[in-house]
Amino acid sequence: MRTEIEYNPAYTMLTLELSSGESVKAEPGAMVAQQDVEMTTGMGSGGVFGGLKRMMGGESFFVNTFTCEGPGNGWVSLAPPVPGDIVGHELGGGESLIVQSGSFLASTGGVELDTSFSGGRGLFSGEGLFLLRAYADSGGGTIWFDSYGAVKELEITHGSELVVDTGHMVAFTEGVDYSIGKVGGIRSLIGGGEGLVMKFRGMGTVWVQSRNISALANSLIPFLPKPSSR
User: Fold this and answer.
1) Which of 166, 158, 222, 226 is nearest to 198 (CA)?
2) How does pLDDT run along the chain (230 residues), one tens digit per residue?
3) Burial of 186 (C-beta count, 10 Å sphere; 0-12/13-18/19+)
4) CB 3.0 to 4.6 Å from 51: which of 43, 68, 157, 227, for a disulfide?
């Protein structure tokens, strides 16, 4: 499968060229254009239970599958719902990746989607009780995830700590653990404008995004029409 990521990092689009018999799974609504491929919509692996678990992770109940069924090649172009970047990550057999809610874009057939329970950490981080977990079977596969703004890849080594604003986390490898905390004291938490942060430790990779969609939404509130009192 040949892939191309175009127009990054602001208005990124992913194009996958499929040979006969190849297929790719994608988030509903992500298709921009396609040629010589067939699209089917289903619940994916795990049936109804699998669809419900994806919904708990912030994704859609259904999954679209694009398959090249003809003798030649076909292609499909996919894009995220907000301006931002797309990252492709290879998963070896048995490896997994934790992705923030709503950032899954597409994956090859060897990748399955599940949820990871984050508990109270998820509530305080703003990510919810569940995060999306992508894992590969014995054959491995590729997952593509998207961001709001550009993506930066950061490596963590044993003995170090990476601090990330809760609204800027995109994904991390499963060997990385995190806790929720604050930067500075109470005064910094209230007046410093940073709020709560995620503190990552362990060994692995964390991807962060250059923009925070929650901060954008908050900045627009003063400009929204006020409800009438009548």
Assistant:
1) 166
2) 899 999 999 899 999 999 999 999 999 999 999 999 999 998 655 544 444 544 544 455 578 999 999 889 999 999 999 999 999 999 999 899 999 988 999 999 899 988 865 544 444 445 444 688 899 988 899 999 999 999 999 999 989 999 999 889 999 998 899 988 876 555 544 444 456 789 999 999 999 999 998 888 888 888 888 876 66
3) exposed
4) 43
172 exposure class (CB count in 10 Å sphere: 0-12, 13-18, 19+)? buried
C-alpha 139/C-alpha 195 separation (Å) is 41
Alpha-carbon gap, residue 189 to 90, rounded angstroms:
37
Q: What pTM value is reported for the model?
A: 0.82
